[in-house]
Amino acid sequence: MVRDLRGVIEREEAEMGIFVCLAEPTAAMLKEARDSGYVAKSAHGRLPRIQILTVENMLAGHMPKMPPLPVPERKLTPSLKRKDKDQLELLLPFAGEKIVPAKGVIVDPRFVGLAG
Q1: Do 76 and 50 reside in the same domain of the chain?
Q2: Sign of the alpha-carbon torsion through 110, 113, 115, 116
C-alpha cells in the first residue's frame, strides 16, 4: 500500500503523503517510505516525502512533520462557532477566499496563493 501511495504521489505530482495504519509498519513499508526521499525546497527543513503513522501514535500525540498551513480568514456565524475549544478544526479555503497567516506564523510561500 505504501508503494501504491508513492505511485499516486508521483502521478499527481504531490509534495508529500501520509500513510496511517492500525498495526506497526513492516520493514518493507518503512524502506519504501525512506526510498521515496524528501520534499524538495522546503522552507521548514527536511520533510520526508512519505510518512507512516499508526493510529496509536496519533492518539498519543505524535503527528506528521508538515509545514504550517495558513488559516483562511473566515467569519463564522454564531451558529457555526465552535463550542468545544479542545476540538481541532482544519479550515480549508474556498475558491477566491483570501488566506492571511496569523501574526508570527511562518508559512511556506508556495501555500499562500492556493486559494486564489
Answers
A1: no
A2: negative
pLDDT score at 39: 87
Tell me which long-range contacts 26-30 makes (C-beta under 8 A, separation of at least 24): 29/1, 29/2
72 with 111, same domain? yes
Identify whether residues 45 and 80 lie together within a single domain.
no
Question: What is the pairing mode between strands 50-54 and 17-21?
Answer: parallel
Residue 83 structural domain? 68-116
47-60 pLDDT tens trace: 899 999 999 999 99
Rounded-to-integer distance, Cα 5 and Cα 19, Å: 8
Grid coordinates representing 25 are 509498519
